[in-house]
Structure formats: structure tokens, C-alpha cells
Amino acid sequence: MKFKRIVSAALAACLLAGCSNQPTGVDDLLRAPQFGGSLQKVQKALTSYLGEAPQLKYPNRSIDGEAVSPFRMEDFNGDGRQDAAVFYVSAAKGQNVHMAILEQKSTGEWFVTQEKEGLAPAVESVSTAELQQGEGRQLIVGYAGSSGEKYLAVYAYDDSTLSEVLTQPYSQYQLHPLSGTKSSDLVVIGPEQPAPLQLQLLTAHEGRFDVAQQLTLREEFVKCSGLYPSKGEDGSRFLVLDGQTATGLASLVLRYDSSQQQLENFTPPAETDLFSATQRFSPILHSADLDGDGRVEIPCQTEAEGVGALTVNKLTIVSWMDFTSRQEQEKRFGVADLEYGYFLALPSEMKGNILIVSGDEPDSWQVRSLDGEKLYITVRVVAPHVQGSSYVRLGNIGAQKVQARVAPGSGVTANELVGGFYVL
Q1: pTM above threshold 0.90
Q2: Surface-to-core class of residue 303, CB atoms within 10 Å of its CB (0-12 exposed, 13-18 middle, 19+ buried)
Q3: What pLDDT, in 10s, does the model give residues 332-356?
């Protein structure tokens, strides 16, 4: 959707500027966007090879933080030089995505060495992994079908030959060196049907992925909503899984047992029933590493102690918990706005001692003393042009911004609120 909005804006700008020979519609813009530098040369080489301008295919999302692009530029064959992978569809080749691998001549020209048909009409995601140290990087591509089905393919490129290392249906996957080696391990969640969900752990071995474990997840999980690598206090490796249930979301924590080389269900030090403790009723409350320490916290919907702690329906009180910690498990406490999708951390001493009520203007709320008499904080969502000398900007939510005003004697500073603002 984001790219389509960009395309529409680009087309409108071109028409307003009086461009000549401009594309006549969105399909033309998708088919032949203009790139610069090496990408432009790669695109020209592919067009020359195909005899037509292909429609470049952008992945739906990023897995490894790379920018979403129809190009992937890395050393795939381990020769120390950059190669290119391009995803596209061609009128002469049917509806499925195709992938071409290109290398560069000493003269700087690019040329196609391999071309392969993908497994579906759309690209869900693209990432790379090193299955064998010093042997280049392998492409991991998620494909999406027209009915929502997804297929995972792992490609290896060697001696100008592109081969499939692995192909299988999936719903989610995560790349992470769980086993502690420099090579990545692959965790794959199988299709949502047939139930129950299956988790596979695949480890890198001699340039391929071998199945090291298959684990059946709780029958209450009808869908995997997220996989998050995490670390423990002692350096141990964990995997936090968010699962969709009939009523919302819940989580489980898996610990990697290096002696068995497998993942195992983890019981928190406090022997908490993780499934019950992590049940929440909003689909946007996903686990995350809020403070960037490498340990993933799980959001738990709680009610602060005291009657009438929350009176605004779109808000919920959330405690972000690190269930692998033997010390303080609650890392953050605060309020989540489920309509606008943000979380604001509050001082821990406020827990059980505050009242959350609607503010005096639209899209605003207040933090007050439990008896309602004393005002501590006012939070509001406003248009970008709205100013207020007594308000500080916490962050942006789409085309709007979130502001807060701290009352004197509240015991919290504006900087603390800015540092505790997170987009969900």
C-alpha cells in the first residue's frame, strides 16, 4: 500500500510538472521505475536479456532490516565480488515471480547468468544467510500466493549455477544464529492448516539446511504472529513466539539447549504460567525489545491496583515483562493507546496510584491521582501544524503527532516521557 501511494504521488507530480513521455498509469510506473548507479545498469542488463522491460516486484516486507527493494546486491558465490538478484514478472513468462542473478564484467557491464521461476505471483520477503563460512551468501525468499498461501525457498549460487537448497510451505520464519555458530539457523513455522502449528528448527551444515527439530505448538495457537530472537542474562539464547488465539494473542518462550542442540519450552524462574500471563486482547500488542538490550519483553495487559484505574476504552494498562530474568521481570509499565497504536511508559511508582481519564479535548487523556483531584500528565494526538508552548512532542503516528504536557509536581519529566514513547 505504501508503495502504491508513492507511485500515485509520483504520477501526480509528473503531470503537474508537464513531463513529456510520462507513464500513462500505475502499471507503467511499476513496470519501469528509474534507478541510478549500479541498479540502473543491472536493470538495463535485465531488460536487454529479456527483450522487454519487466515489472519489478517489491517484497511485501523486510525481514532483516534491509530496505524493501526488487534488487538484492551481495556476494552470492563467495568470489569477493558483488552480485545482483532481481525479482520481476514478465508478460512472456506467466504470472509467477522470476528471479535473475547477474554478475559484473571487468568492464563494469552486468550480465544475466541464471534465471529461475519463483513459487508464487508475489514476493513476501527476501533475506540472506551464510550456510557455509566463506562460501558466499544464500538467498532466502518467501513467496505469497493469491489465496494467502506462502512458500519458502532457499537458493544457493555457485559456479554460475542457481540451485534450490530448500522449498516448503510456511507461515513465518526467522533467521538467527541460535546454535552460536557464525552460520544462521532457520526457524520455520508451518502453514496454519492443518492444525496444530508446527515449528521446525533447521541448522546449517555443509552448505544446506538440515532439519534438527520439529516441535508441535500449543493447540490454542491458530496462527504465528511473530518470532523474536532474544538473549538471557547468562548469554543463553531464546526465541519468543507470539501466537494468535481465538480471543487475541499469547506468547511462549523457547530456550535453545546447546547440549541437545534443540529448542525447549522455557519455564520462567517464578514458575509463571506463561500462556495465561501473556494473554492479551489487542492484535497490536506484539513482543519487542523496547530498551535495545537484546532481551525481548512481552506486553501483558494488567489493571493497576485500585478501583477505577482506567476509564478510557481505547486505552489499556500494559506491563512489558522479561520472563527470562531472575531479577526484576517488569521492564516497563505504562499506557497503550490501542486506537492510534502507541505506548507511553510511566514511572513504576505510579502503578496502582493513578487514574486514567479522558482529557478536555478530542483524542486526549490524562493521568491523575487516584482520587482524581491532582493532574499529573496530559497526552493528546493532534495534526502536525498544531502547536502548544506547554506541550512537548513525543513522536509521530502516521500523519499526526503525539504531545504531552507535564503538570508541576507530577514527579515525572518531559524527557522521561519522550524516552518512554514507542510506536506499536
Answers
A1: no
A2: exposed
A3: 999 999 999 999 999 988 988 899 9
